[in-house]
Amino acid sequence: MKKIQILGTGCPKCKKLTENAESAAKELGVAYEVEKVTDINEIMKFGVMMTPALAVDGQVKSVGKVISPDEIKKMLL
Amino acid sequence: MDFKSEWKKLFVIAAVFLACFYLPVGSSRFDNAVGESLHLVKWYAREHALLCLVPAFFIAGAISVFVSRASVMKYLGAGANKILAYGVASVSGTVLAVCSCTVLPLFAGIYKMGAGLGPATAFLYSGPAINVLAIILTARILGLELGIARAVGAVLFSVIIGLAMHIIYRKEESQKAQSQMAMPEPLVQRPLWKNALYFASMVGILVFANWARSGDVRAVFLCCPGGLTAYQIEGTLVSRTDAGLKILDTSGKTHEIPAGLVEQVQDVKKNSLYEVIYQFRLFLVILLLTAFAVMVFRWFDRHEIAEWFAATWGFAKQILPLLLAGVLASGFLLGRPDPAHEGVIPVKWINAAVGGNSIWANLFAAVAGAFMYFATLTEVPILQGLLGAGMGKGPALALLLAGPALSLPSMLVLRSVMGTQKTVVFVCLVIVMATISGMIFGAVWG
User: Per-residue pLDDT for B253 more than 70?
Assistant: First the structure.
């Protein structure tokens, strides 16, 4: 079970990143759950200051940009 | 029907219905204001969109992709030199926060994980004023003086505010979050001189493409009947009769000023260098564009160029709708920026509230700015409308400094990050500093 966390205060870019992450996980066929972290203090606990960011199993993988489903796939493997 | 979840929508529909029901179409003030707002949008589209906004977006996109934020953040980290941290925090908004929308998370990060409260508040105050898009748009639309004053005022006073916050709360060293700062790495490291040339040529294109010729005369006139604020236009005299003046200003707009309001008309000495540059501006722009294109194709690979375009496009998508809404609202409320055109709000009121350079005018502007929410960059058209309607230059700067740095929504986020008391102190400091900078600027330049 992969835990995908999207960090962001609710901007359009965060939504786009969420979609990309979901489609990446579906294509890979892995079990996953997506959690949106929107509270700024929670986001800080990850050490992230540029949103949107993506964390897999608690590890920050990408910061400050929307990455494509292909890039996310590599992070999920 | 689930009334609990649907009542909001019902409320909205009822409000929209009532607004339509009582829509004051036909009242001359309302119809006029709608016209003004469309005129203003047209003027922005013609004067500012292509030459100013498009290059500005490309520059912002380039900064966000090619400049290493991690290398700036190391001066704002937990182990950073404290004195250096204030200096870096006060100017780093240019690089870190390419638009004012990204300031809050960075502030929280510097406060919780990095150099602490002082540098974080310094960054929070100056960031929205000195990001590239804000500087370019302010200088272009509100004039170079106000653009520079905004940047300089923000940087100087951010250090003072940061130090004040640090001194007030020096006893309580906040619990540092034990997390590493995660920053995006730029795609490829390039030698500094290549980056410098690349950015310099882009800024050069922006500057020369917008080069305005200097005028022949400068008319000084009072803004409106009984107005407190003098208003200046520099340009070429088209006609002068008993009824009034007609002046073609340096950006190509014609102004008609009723004779009763004209205070004086001065001759302006033409600056010859200025004129020469104006004549060769197209040549300069083409030269720079060519050099720029060569640099991009020699030094950057396709992937990087694609990233850069994507970032630029992202900014354009995010900011253009906000700016359009801001311009429409400004035109509707305040009319075109010259005294003959009024929006919904009577010019008299604006004059009474923020005309001249009294302490009350400055304070009022600072307080209003602190609580009002300005979506990214919309402070510029709104300020332009206010200035045109008779706002003094001092209060304008006060509003520019307090406005984007704070708003009611951002205060709520700040409160969740640093607590109620610190937020209140910060808000008061911002209001006081903005008022003071406004008064100084108004006394010197007003």
Answer: no
All structural domains of chain B, each given as residue ranges with its CATH number in brackets, are 30-188+301-445 (no CATH), 217-269 (2.30.30)
Give me the residue label for tokens 């200097």.
B214
- For chain B, what is the mean pLDDT? 81
Contact A47 B416 (CB under 8 A): no
CATH class of A2-76: alpha beta
The closest of B154, B229, B97, B231 to B403, measured between CA atoms, is B154
Q: What is the per-residue pLDDT across B208-227, written as a single tens digit (0 to 9) for each?
A: 887 776 666 666 666 555 55
Q: What is the pLDDT of residues A29-67, one digit of tens each?
A: 888 888 888 888 888 888 887 778 888 888 888 887 788
Residues in a beta bridge with A62: A54
Q: Name the DSSP letter for residue B181.
A: P
Measured distance CA(B120)–CA(B125) in Å, rounded: 9
Provide φ and ψ at B356, rounded to 5°: 70, -160
The packing angle between helices B54-66 and B302-334, to 10°, is: 130
Tell me which chain A residues have a C-beta less than 8 angstroms from the C-beta of B182: 46-49, 53, 60, 63
Structural domain boundaries of chain A?
2-76
Candidate from B108, B183, B184 with C-beta closest to A44: B108
Of A11, A41, A47, the CB nearest to B182: A47
A16 included as an active-site residue: no
Whether A23 sits among the annotated catalytic residues: the reply is: no
Cβ–Cβ below 8 Å for A49 and B318: no
- The β-bridge partners of A5 are A35, A55
pTM assigned to the model: 0.78
